[in-house]
Design goal:
The structure holds two protein chains of two kinds. By secondary structure, chain A is of the alpha+beta class. Helices cover 18% and strands 44% of the residues of chain A. Chain B folds into three domains: 161 residues, P-loop containing nucleotide triphosphate hydrolases (Rossmann fold, 3-Layer(aba) Sandwich), CATH 3.40.50; 38 residues; 128 residues, Up-down Bundle (Zinc Finger, Delta Prime, domain 3), CATH 1.20.272. The chains are: A alpha+beta, B alpha/beta.
Amino acid sequence: MKLSCLQENLSKGLGIVSRAVATRTTLPITTNVLLATDQGRLKLVATNLEIAIVTWVGAKIEEEGAITVPSRVLGEFVNSLPNDQVDLKLAPATKSLEIKCARFEARISGMDAEDFPPIPEIDEGTVARIDAGVFSQSLTRVVFAAATEDSRPVLTGVNADFDGKMVTLAAADGFRLSVDKVALLEPVAESVSVIIPARALTEVNRLIGDSSDPVVITVNPAKSQVLFTMDNVRLISQLVQGNFPNYSQLIPQGHSTRTLVDAEEFLRATRAASIFARDASGIVRLQVDPGDNGLGRLTISARAEEVGDDQGDIDAKVEGEEAKIAFNAKYLSDILSVLAKGEVVLETTNPSSPGLIRPGGDTDYVHVVMPMFVQW
Amino acid sequence: MWKIIGHERVVEALRRSVEQGRVSHANLFTGPPMIGKATLAMNLAQALNCLGEERPCGECVQCRRIRESKHADVQVIRLGPGLDEDDDSHKAILTEQIEGLQQAAALQPFEGRAKVFIIEAAELMSAAAANRLLKTLEEPPATVYMVLLADDQRRLLPTVTSRCRVYELRPVPLETIETALTRDHAVDAPEARRLARLAEGRPGWALAAARDAAVLEDREEDLNEIVELVSQSDHQRLAVAARMANRFGRRRAEVGQWLGLLLQWWRDLLLVKGGRPEMAVNADRLETLEETAAELSLQAIADALRRVEEAADHLERNVNPRLALEVLMLHLPVAGQRQAALAPAG
């Protein structure tokens, strides 16, 4: 293998794939990044056996070849080089990669490319295309609700249900549930339902970045892997085995109070209350006062015995009766942070039934939070 | 072809379950160290992923990658390296390792058909780790197979064993090991015979010794020391105990092996004393065995054997290793020159 490319491009490419490099692993080669010549370009690959990321860097190839070298060493070294031409050369006898750039020279010991886990080629299966902005917003609103610890593995994933022209994404951790239904660019050939690891989707969201090119999602026929094709980057994720719980019955169908408030004001008051809630099992109390003519008030308060208490009022348009409910401060600020701007709707029935939060306006997104039981 | 020396019955049972697609998702292989548990587990992992006709074929890309420990779906969980004193990872398999396993088990296989997790020395799982594993053992995802390896089934939690299909590997007949060594591993006949006898039914040990001369050299060195113990002063014996206790802190298994060798030597002494020298493992030292045995009573030899077993048991129960080994050393019978030296005074 012998080629040259630009430091800037190589550094960017290594940065992209480094997100998939394994940290703790039983297979040492997965801490390496694979470099291979591929149709006139340099292909970079990393995998932690859960996800794999592949990207390409423009290069002038003189000799074909492939090698794997430790991702951290190569990444850090390339980052420290000046923005100039980088020459890469494989010394097959020692399995080391020689790097030359400006007046720098380095040799990094590697391992055989053949020993690298084979990255699945997914060239058939169910294909869905989706607008990058729509997908990114949906991921932001859903993925955070997935469980992080693994006592129930299916909950560490996001259920993706492709049906006709729509995809429904759902994540839950036992205390909260996020469901979003968004449009695909064209209908899928057959409906398919898979559980994608939340970590993989977080990376997909990061990789979409500001790109506006549609994201192509391919689920392989065996329903064991999913491929996300983005601008010059591919992410392949193993799917989670098992059945996602039937969540539709968890979404409250009715409510006795509907409160419409400004998202930013609600978030500010919640964050203020969190300061006291920290020492009070995270409890934040919400009280809804319908007021006159629908011009009511939402009071957000928290009280910690040893520390003190706070209370914040915000304007609210209220339909229905007076209500009170308590939530965990973290869950409340998580959901309000991802909704960010505009109006949010809070629908409640009674202090012991789940609350439903959704953005104001026309959307299929819903977020359900379990209440906390408190003495009022 | 299953590539393993001996264990025909277990292999046949596994072969049939692979053929019928009825391999248990939770398996436990038990038997003494180096008897073939890990080899059998590797073969099973190959059989479950093999692309060939007769599984495992040993030649397809899946079989090859599994054999070379490069397969992404076959993971071996074992004791960590234990980098310093505070690090417990060389004493027990930790909860974090089991959690890592469960995280990987939740995903579909990466490159093969089945995910196989092999837990080496499963008896070393901490109680918390073992309990963490129960749920996975009980209802693993469809593509996941667990293989636990353990010296002794009784040292595992009953809740673990009851969830596994247990395959017990017994010592392999001397002739089987001897034949395998000469036929498949190009070992000379006399050497094969000697290794097969010293292996005590453990093909893995015979193979390791055939491949690496150092195995036999280390054994000889340890045995020389063990042979001399009987004629050594208390002072010398305590020095041995101190050295072994020190080794125990870092590499537990080595001390276990040393005790095994000690037990073997005293068993040989008992056999010689009892008039069955042809059954002695250390037949190449028959002369020394006879000399030592002549100076000791049957009772003394039997006591020594009991003491060694007791010490091994104490070490397992986390008795202070130095104390346990010192007690053992002080209780081993006295013979040879030392006895002669003591005799006039006594």
